[in-house]
Amino acid sequence: MHDLAFVRGNLPLVEEKLSLRGVERSLLRGFSALDAERRSAITEAETLKAQRNALSAEFGRLKREGGDTTPVAARNSALKEKTEQLEALAADADQKLRTLLESLPNLPHDSVPAGDSEQQNVCQKTWGEIPVFDFAAKPHWEIGEQLGILDFERAAKISGARFVLQLGSGARLERALANFMLDLHTREHGYVEVLPPSLVNSQSLFGTGQLPKFAQDLFHCDDKGPYVSGELQESDHWLIPTAEVPVTNIFRGETIDLTNGPISFTAYTPCFRSEAGSHGKDTRGMIRQHQFQKVELVKFTRPEDSYAEHEALTRHAETVLERLGLPYRRMLLCTGDMGFSSAKTYDLEVWLPGQQTYREISSCSNFEAFQARRAEIRFRPAGAKKAEFVHTLNGSGLAIGRTYLAILENYQQADGSVRIPEALLPYMNGETVITRQSFGRAL
Predict the structure, then answer these.
(1) How far apart are CA 82 and CA 336, in angstroms?
(2) Does residue 443 register a pLDDT over 50?
(3) What sign has the CA pseudo-torsion 175, 178, 180, 186?
(4) Dihedral of CA 192/198/203/209: which sign?
């Protein structure tokens, strides 16, 4: 969320920055009118309060002297009624201003390229050799089904479309990836592992920017009735779309100590997405699932450190891909392709030989104070009397399902088997190759 005073004092800059993100300038003209209405009402109400104070003094004098207080009392009553009307007007304008500010995306950092779609994203680096096979590379859904480790048909029977059932060595591979990533981030990168709830309330989703604008992308539990836009409850429940939500909200409403540097958390959780608006898109395989697992990286930093920490967090995610030997590229997202809360985002895209394309496997973002202002997370700078908002960052380190499918496609062999990357061997119970497995067939 944006700071009211900053928007008011820098309206041309805010208009220019938000126009790069596709926000209509007329929205901010509406801001100016609402702000002027609010300030006018407050000023007039304060003037009337001063007049009422003077009338109260006059009323007291007349009463002491035995004079007629009726005209003064009538005037005071009229002023009181008018003051209450003005205060209600100011409160209404204030709420409309807050709603408007809540609906506006973050301002892009100066280093973010202008653009209106992924076509304007900028490739900053590539890593790794694109594998060359002496056979026709298969997509992961064919590899997994032929090996008997992925079953989309039975998953659909159990839960519907966009779910997958993992079996045998496939299930072990998923678990191996999670353990490998968590060990890497905690042992080498200095993150503290946390296991948060997978159900959160509306206030938590508001804090990280998913509510109220993106409710259709989430799964809401019906334990407290249907969600009403704008009603941020503490006791309703949503399935988390990412561990970013519960982990960032660990410090919601708190002032934290950053004296010793940033606070860094990593979490392995299930993630749930409704995939609204993606009908007919990536229907094959594990690219767009309603449920998937992810290892998340979250940082709380001082403002002056946040962009250095953004680079560090992105490198931590890249290290996972490099240790697994998966070719990837780093993309700097343009203004039109960034997430709502982000000021700057890098996407890491892994090469998928079975599909002959790069696909996103991690998104690493600096939100600056945008989320912290919504969630009221502050720190107190050394020697300062007043607390300031922290900067929050997060990134996938990595999405397990997409890493899984990238391994199937990049490590496939001519006989249909899949080699295990060396970094995962300690987690695979002696397996070095995944071969055809059978767990019973329908008769």
Answers:
(1) 46
(2) no
(3) negative
(4) positive
Residue 412 has what DSSP assignment?
B
In the chain, the N- to C-terminal Cα span, in Å, equals: 57
DSSP assignment string, 125-139: EEESPPP--SSPPPP
**What average pLDDT score do residues 323-334 get?**
98
Question: CA torsion, points 153, 350, 243, 116, in degrees to nearest 10?
Answer: -100
Say if CB 308 and CB 88 are below 8 A apart. no
E strand or H helix at 319, and its extent? Answer: helix 306-323
Quickly tell me which residue has 């993606």 as its tokens: 278
- What residues have CB less than 8 Å from 192, skipping those under 6 apart? 186, 263, 264, 265, 266
Rounded to 5°, the CA angle 97-99-102 comes to 110
Task: Cis check for the bond before 212: say yes or no (omega within 30 of 0).
Answer: yes
DSSP per residue, 135-197: SPPPPHHHHHHHHTSEEHHHHHHHH-SS--EE-HHHHHHHHHHHHHHHHHHHHTS-PEE----
Spell out the domains of the chain, with CATH numbers in brackets.
4-103 (1.10.287.40), 118-198+240-434 (3.30.930.10)
Least confidently predicted of 125-129, 144-148, 210-214: 210-214
Could you write out the DSSP letters of every residue in 259-312?
TTS-EEEEEEEEEE---TT-TTSS-STTSS-SEEEEEEEEEEE-GGGHHHHHHH
Tally of CA atoms within 13 A in the half-sphere of 21 that contains its CB: 23
pLDDT, greater one: 232 or 25? 25
Residue 423: alpha-carbon gap to chain centroid: 29
